[in-house]
Amino acid sequence: MIKKLFIFLFISIIGIAIIIPKNTNAQTIQQFEEEIEKYTAELQAKKNAIAKNDKEVAEIEAKIKSIQAEIKTLQQEVNDLQAEIDESNREIEKKTAQSKKLIEYYQVSNGENAYLQYVFGAESITDMIYRISVVEQLTEYNDNLMKELQKLIEQNKIRQKELDQKQKDLTAKQKELKDEQAKIESDTQAIKESMPSVEQQIKSAQANVKYYKALGCGQTEDILKCQYRIEQARAAASSSGGGSSSGGSIPSTNGFYRPMQYGYVTQGYGGAGGHLGVDLSSSNKSIPIYPIANGQVFFKGYDCYGALVVKIKHNYNGRYIYSTYAHMRSFGNISKGQYISYATSIGNMGSTGWSTGPHLHLEITTCDWNAGGGCTYATYKRSTINPFSLISLPSSWTNR
After folding, report:
1. I want to staple 380 with a disulfide (CB 3.0 to 4.6 A). Which of 46, 159, 272, 369 is the partner?
2. Alpha carbons 314 and 160: distance in angstroms, whole number
3. Is the distance from CB of 350 to CB of 329 less than 8 angstroms?
4. pTM beyond 0.90, yes or no
């Protein structure tokens, strides 16, 4: 009997160790302060990058103005060239009309009969020689006129090619201008989008340092163990007992429930390098959300992406773990620090923040990066627990 009991206890201990991994990323106040220095340096580097980018933006804007001025000049050249082409065409039409009238008047171009009639109609040899000279002069004039017209036509074609090329150059410069503007917007936006997260991490790390120093943890002490020991000792000594929002200990839990009455899994757990939790949804896109176990409201608010988030702190097997509920459309009637049970509604499912549709994003971790959670954001991501190891989550369910 004793041997069987020993085996049962041994298996139970091993099972708990497998389900809740040991925190290999223990944090100390000293490590927090080092993280603050690291994040501060990172933030300063981003600010320096923005300053450098602003300088580049100013240079690009100056270049854009130069391109715009060049485009304006080029457009004027295009307009002037078109005016010259139009004038050449009008001159060609004018000279063509003059030539036509002249030839029609003398009828030289209509054939040799008219030419002969004109020449042999002379009354004397002198008149004939004169008439032959006139015809030759008119013919030479007509040839020269046609050559001039042809030259103008060729110039017209060359000018037209110049116009086409300048129009292509104009289009290319306009595209270059748009590409420069897109680069400015992309570079600046990429840098600025990452800054709030870094600033928030610095503030949270500073708040954690302040919290654990006030709690009485040593500079190099594992703050998670320190926190649990001190808070449990204070709760035991408190005359208020458990269950109030102002004192007592977090009620312990021995098991976990599904966070909604009915639903299904839409995305699984990807680990520290991937999806940090699981995504759950339901046919009722605003279904009430419940804690996975008894605990204390640790955080209620928005994340840096605008999602409504609630975090619950649980007392499980002599340590704290945290459950996070994100993207909710509304909060329940709860407040930070309040002790709640697994049957307390903490809000309703929604699609706030970075979300493609109504769902609940559930994370379970051994620490949290908000004040009093005992870790930085980098450690938080490594502290995730696969929710499937604690909660029965079939592909779909109809009860908690």
Report:
1. 369
2. 80
3. yes
4. no
pLDDT in tens, 48-82: 888 888 887 778 777 778 877 877 787 787 777 77
DSSP readout, 6-55?
Answer: HHHHHHHHHHHHHHS---SS---HHHHHHHHHHHHHHHHHHHHHHHHHHH
- One DSSP character per residue, 110-144 reads T-HHHHHHHHTT-SSHHHHHHHHHHHHHHHHHHHH
Give strand pairing partners of 344. none
What whole-number distance in Å separates Cα of residue 346 and Cα of residue 358? 16
Task: Assign a CATH topology to domain 48-194.
Answer: Helix Hairpins (1.10.287)
Q: What is the dihedral of CA 228, 229, 230, 232, to 10 degrees?
A: 70
Which residue has better confidence, 138 or 223?
A: 223
Q: How far apart are CA 271 and CA 63, in angstroms?
A: 47
Fold of 248-397: Glucose Permease (Domain IIA) (2.70.70)
Residues belonging to the chain: 400
298-317 average pLDDT score: 93
Phi, psi (rounded to 5 degrees) for 369? -90, -5
CA nearest neighbour of 385 among 13, 12, 14, 23:
23
Domain boundaries, the chain: 48-194, 248-397
C-alpha to C-alpha distance for 218 and 81, rounded to whole angstroms: 83
CB 375 within 8 A of CB 25: yes
Q: Provide the CB-side half-sphere exposure for 282 (13 A, CA).
A: 22
Q: What are phi and psi of 328, to 5 degrees?
A: -65, 150
